[in-house]
Amino acid sequence: AQRVTQPEKLLSVFKGAPVELKCNYSYSGSPELFWYVQYSRQRLQLLLRHISRESIKGFTADLNKGETSFHLKKPFAQEEDSAMYYCALSDYGQNFVFGPGTRLSVLP
Amino acid sequence: ETGVTQSPTHLIKTRGQQVTLRCSSQSGHNTVSWYQQALGQGPQFIFQYYREEENGRGNFPPRFSGLQFPNYSSELNVNALELDDSALYLCASSPFLEDSYNEQFFGPGTRLTVL
Q1: Is the peptide bond prior to A7 cis by the omega test (within 30 degrees of 0)?
Q2: How confident is the model at residue A49 (pLDDT cuts 50, 70, 90)?
Q3: Residue B58 and residue B32: Cα distance in Å, rounded?
Q4: Which residues of chain B register pLDDT less than 50?
Q5: What pLDDT was estimated at residue A93?
Q6: Contact residues, chain A to chain B, C-beta under 8 Å
Q7: Residues of chain A positioned with their CB less than 8 A from the CB of B101
Q8: A50 pLDDT exceeds 60?
């Protein structure tokens, strides 16, 4: 069965410190992986997807098929990065599985 | 360009009742997905509609049903409400292209409370 796990419910880091939000998945085929973010009082929105291999707001994520992971990283955290982050996978856009989410708190 | 809208914002029902939630997709989007988000959890995929037909479904019982209209707006219907149906219901729309994934744009959600 498809499944996405995010081991940390809450992650606190100081401003300027590196941050890594962990995501692991189980899927029998070749999934599409995403990170979605929800800032305070805003809607859930796409942050990045593995197929585009781009950096958004300084965040990057590498798909490691061997470890079935898609960790989100940023070298220097900013206070405005504080939000709820969800890792998600999709099989050809017809079924989506979200992880439970990690709340990132960037301290001043 | 108008974003995804959902109505109502909040709703209170009692166990056993039926509820209909509504979603207007973003302009130019022909695909709508519905999610249930319980408190403290990630969104759970209910189903997706593409061109008025169900195009994928998560692990939800048949009492969760939906419709998509020619203007691509959508409804989520839940029959025989149970206490565990209390959650935030999210709608997301996206343009649908074969062999590619398109970003989903989420609405603000409808908070359903079942007493």
Answers
A1: no
A2: confident
A3: 14
A4: none
A5: 67
A6: 4, 32, 43-46, 49, 51, 86, 88, 90, 92-101
A7: 32, 49, 51, 90, 92-93
A8: yes
**pLDDT at residue B1 in the model:** 56
CA dist A48 and A51 (Å) reads 9
Q: Rounded distance, CA A22 to CA A19, Å?
A: 10
With tokens 């498809």, the residue in question is A2
Quote the minimal CA–CA distance from B21 to chain A in Å. 18
Q: What stretches of chain A show up as alpha helix (H) in DSSP?
A: none
Within 8 A by CB and 6+ apart from B71, the residues are none
**pLDDT of amino acid B98:** 57
Six-digit token string for B105 = 């744009």
Structure tokens at A77: 């955290």
CA A62, A65, A69 angle in degrees (round to 5)? 55
Q: How many CB pairs under 8 A join A and B?
A: 52
Tokens of A102: 């990690």
